[in-house]
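look at this stuff:

>
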Amino acid sequence: MNKIGFNLLPWSAGVSSAVFPLLDRLKSIGYDGIELLIGSPDETEYKALGNYARELNLETTGVFVLGADDNPIASESVIRQRGLDKIKWAIDRAHDLGSKVICGPFHSAHGSFSRAAPTEEEYQWSAEVLQQAGEYAKQADIVLALEAVNRFETYLANTMEQLAKLVELTNHSHVRAMYDTHHANIEEKSIKQPIDRIRPYLAHVHISENDRGTPGKGLVHWQEVFTALKAANYEGWYTIESFSRADPDFANAINVWREYSDPWEIAEEGYTFIKSMLAKA
């Protein structure tokens, strides 16, 4: 059965007790879980947040990125090793949270470009790191849900075709894929065919409008999306991912220069929207 989640990034990229009131209100709206960025260096905060979420009967998922200093497709083996070590660190933090899914484009460095198209060697390097990370994740019963993101953020995997290729090359039970409606709206030529392509590996879905605002108030072809996911027998999370300027350091890092919608409008209307679309599908 599908569950509906909300990523806390419209308010904060942190994991401290300051976000606890957000969980209270999201639970009152009806959400099954919350998603948060795994990046805060204070490891004790993850257990505290995970415990608080469990008290509210909220599940958690994590989202995670890597940078140039720990890039899994760097030509230098020492940098690739740092990437593997950082992914293992994220798996440990997800375990502290009680999460069963870590999603994100950590197949390669976010915002780092070679000024060339991806090479077969880079796919192989990524797969080697991910295979080892998958073995580590398996011990914690955590699924790594790789994300294809748009051409302005990465170059290794922009489409479901490229992402499926990488997952197949990795060939590990705990290395799967996710579908993000924002990135697909930029990169794919259709909706049904890419979802059909990634269907065997699909473990997570981000619901995100073309402008990162309130789902249903933009240009994404939502009826086609939900119909295709229903036809694919997708039974995982539908998690809303949106951004704002509330956390300036994070906003600046991901090039968010304006507000898209009020965060609570996104949360409240977005939940109702997903429920209605699931019913129609």
The chain has one domain: 3-280. The chain is about 45% helix and 15% strand.
